[in-house]
From TrEMBL:
Gene3D superfamilies the record matches: Outer membrane efflux proteins (OEP)
Annotated membrane topology: Lipid-anchor
GO CC term, one of those recorded: plasma membrane
Family note: Belongs to the outer membrane factor (OMF) (TC 1.B.17) family.
The keyword Ribonucleoprotein is annotated on this UniProt entry: no
Localization per Swiss-Prot or TrEMBL: Cell membrane
GO molecular function, one term: efflux transmembrane transporter activity
Main localization (coarse): membrane
Name of protein: Efflux transporter, outer membrane factor (OMF) lipoprotein, NodT family
Entry keyword set: Lipoprotein, Membrane, Palmitate, Signal, Transmembrane, Transmembrane beta strand
Organism for this UniProt entry: Desulfoluna spongiiphila
Length: 470
C-alpha cells in the first residue's frame, strides 16, 4: 500500500512539473517597440534567390560562390551553429532521467570467538530525476534553442557580409582597372601635348606659363596613375583574402580584367522601403532573439527561488558470505529529496531583478537596432536614387564631350583646326570617362549597400550547405 502511494505521488509531481512561474512578455513587448516602424499593409516576402544575381555578372557570380564555399569566416559561423545545436541536444538530454550503474565488493576479517572472514557485494542500477516543478529547466532548454536560432541569424549576417564584400571589392577592382587604363592613356596624351607646347614655345607661339601648366598637369596625372596601380594591387589582395587565398593569386583566378566595362544597372522601381524586410534583417532577428532569451533568463532565476524536488530509484542484487555460508537477493529502493532555499540574504531576489533589468536592456537595444536598420535602409535608398541622377548627368557630359571630340576631329581632318585643339578635346573626353566610371562604381556600391540594408536574400543551396548537420 505504501508503495502505491509513493508511485502516485511521483506521477503527480511529474505531471505538475514544467509549470513555469513566469509569464512570458517578450512577444508583446517586441510588437509594441516596433509598432510605429512596422507597416501592417506591407506583405513583401524575402525572395529565395541569391541577391547578387540581379547584377547579371557571371564573373561576380563565380567569385561569390567561391567565397561562400571557402571563406574561413563562414566556416567559423557554421561551426558556431553546430556548437549551439550540440548544447541544445545536451540540454534536452538533461531533462531526461539519468541512470547509473553502482557496484561494490569487499572482504573483512573479524578476530575473536565469533570472528572469521566475510565477503560482501552489490550491483544496482540507480535512476535519478529532478522534477521541473517551476519550469526552470524548460526555460534553460528554450534559451539553448534561442541560442541556436541566434547562431543561424549570425550565419545569415555573415553570408550577407561576405557576399557584399566580394561584390563591392570586385566592382572597386573593376573600376580601378578602368581608371588605370584611362590614366595611362591620359598620361600618354599629356606627354604628347607637352612636347607640342614645348615645340611651340621654341617657335615663340606659346608662353612659358603654358609649358609650366602642362608640366603640372602631367605630374598630377602621373601621381594619379601610380595611385591607381596601388589601388588595383590592394583590391587584388582583398579579393584574394575573401577567396581564402594568399595575396597575389587573384590575377590567376580572374584573367583578362583590363578592358572589362562596369555593368549598367536598371533604375530602381519607385516603391517605398519594405518594413517587413528591414525587420527581418539578420541583426534584427538576433536582437529579437536576445529579448526572448532575456525573458527566459527571468524564468530561470524565478524558478531558482522555489524548492527543488528530485526522485531516485534503484534495483539490483546484493550478497554477503561467511565461512559457514552465504546469502544473496534482490534489493530495491525509491525515495525523494527536497531542497528549499531558507536564508540567502536576498541573493536570489537580486538575481531576478538583475535579469528583469537585462530584459528591459535587451528590449531597448532591439529598438535601437531597429532605428539603425531603418536609417541605413533609407540612406542606402537615397544614395541609390541620387546616384542614378548623377550617373545620368555624367553620361550626358560624356556624350557631349565625345561629340566635341568628333567635331574637332572632323575639323582637324579638314584642316580647319590644329592638332593641339584635338589633343585637348581627347583629354577632356578621357576625364569625362573617368568621372563616369567613378560614378558608376559608386552607384553599384550603393545598390550593394541597399541589398545589405534590406538583409540580402539567398537560395536554398546556401541554406542547405551551412545549416544541414550530420
Amino acid at each position: 500500500m505504501k508503495r502505491c502511494w509513493l508511485i502516485v505521488l511521483a506521477l503527480g509531481l511529474a505531471a505538475f512539473s514544467a509549470c513555469s512561474v513566469h509569464e512570458r512578455t517578450a512577444t508583446g513587448a517586441l510588437v509594441e517597440k516596433a509598432s510605429d516602424l512596422r507597416d501592417t499593409r506591407d506583405e513583401t516576402l524575402r525572395p529565395e534567390v541569391d541577391w547578387w544575381l540581379s547584377f547579371e555578372d557571371e564573373t561576380l557570380n563565380g567569385l561569390v560562390a567561391r567565397a561562400l564555399g571557402e571563406n574561413p569566416t563562414l566556416e567559423e559561423a557554421a561551426a558556431n551553429v553546430r556548437k549551439a545545436e550540440a548544447f541544445l541536444a545536451g540540454q534536452k538530454a538533461a531533462d531526461l532521467p539519468g541512470i547509473n550503474l553502482s557496484g561494490s565488493a569487499g572482504r573483512a576479517r573479524t578476530e575473536g570467538f565469533m570472528g572469521g572472514i566475510s565477503n560482501s557485494w552489490s550491483l544496482s542500477a540507480v535512476a535519478s530525476y529532478e522534477l521541473d516543478l517551476w519550469g526552470g529547466r524548460q526555460a534553460l532548454e528554450a534559451q539553448r534553442a534561442l541560442d541556436r536560432e541566434a547562431s543561424l541569424a549570425s550565419l545569415s549576417a555573415t553570408l550577407v557580409s561576405v557576399s557584399a564584400q566580394v561584390a563591392d571589392t570586385w566592382y572597386l577592382r573593376l573600376e580601378r582597372q578602368v581608371q588605370l587604363d584611362l590614366s595611362e592613356e591620359r598620361v600618354d596624351m599629356r606627354r604628347e601635348l607637352l612636347e607640342m607646347i614645348e615645340w611651340r614655345y621654341g617657335q615663340g607661339t606659346a608662353t612659358a606659363r603654358d609649358v609650366y601648366d602642362t608640366r603640372t598637369e602631367l605630374a598630377v596625372d602621373e601621381v594619379t596613375l601610380a595611385r591607381y596601380r596601388t589601388d588595383v594591387a590592394v583590391a587584388d589582395h582583398a579579393l584574394s583574402a575573401l577567396l581564402n587565398r594568399k595575396p597575389g593569386d587573384f590575377e590567376d583566378t580572374v584573367p583578362g580584367i583590363s578592358g572589362k566595362p562596369l555593368p549598367t544597372m536598371p533604375p530602381l522601381a519607385d516603391e517605398p522601403l519594405s518594413s517587413r524586410l528591414i525587420l527581418g534583417r539578420p541583426d534584427m532577428v538576433r536582437a529579437m532573439l536576445d529579448v526572448k532569451k532575456a525573458d527566459e533568463a527571468v524564468a530561470v532565476s524565478l524558478a531558482d527561488r522555489f524548492p527543488s524536488f528530485s526522485l531516485t530509484a534503484g534495483y539490483g542484487r546484493a550478497g554477503d558470505g561467511w565461512e559457514a555460508g552465504s546469502t544473496s537477493g534482490a534489493v530495491w529502493n525509491i525515495g525523494g529529496d527536497l531542497l528549499a532555499p531558507l536564508i540567502d540574504w536576498g541573493r536570489r531576489k537580486a538575481l531576478v531583478e538583475a535579469d528583469r533589468a537585462a530584459f528591459d536592456e535587451s528590449l531597448a537595444r532591439y529598438r535601437s537596432t531597429a532605428l539603425v536598420a531603418f536609417t541605413e535602409a533609407a540612406d542606402a535608398l537615397t544614395r541609390c536614387r541620387n546616384g542614378e541622377r548623377e550617373d545620368a548627368r555624367l553620361q550626358e557630359s560624356l556624350d557631349a564631350s565625345s561629340a566635341t571630340t568628333a567635331y574637332v576631329t572632323s575639323r582637324y581632318l579638314e584642316g580647319a583646326s590644329d592638332y593641339l585643339t584635338l589633343m585637348i578635346a581627347r583629354i577632356a573626353e578621357n576625364e569625362a570617362r573617368s568621372r563616369l566610371a567613378t560614378s558608376r562604381r559608386l552607384l553599384l556600391s550603393n545598390r550593394i549597400g541597399l541589398a545589405r540594408a534590406l538583409g540580402g536574400s539567398f537560395s536554398d543551396t546556401w541554406v542547405r550547405t551551412y545549416v544541414t548537420t550530420d
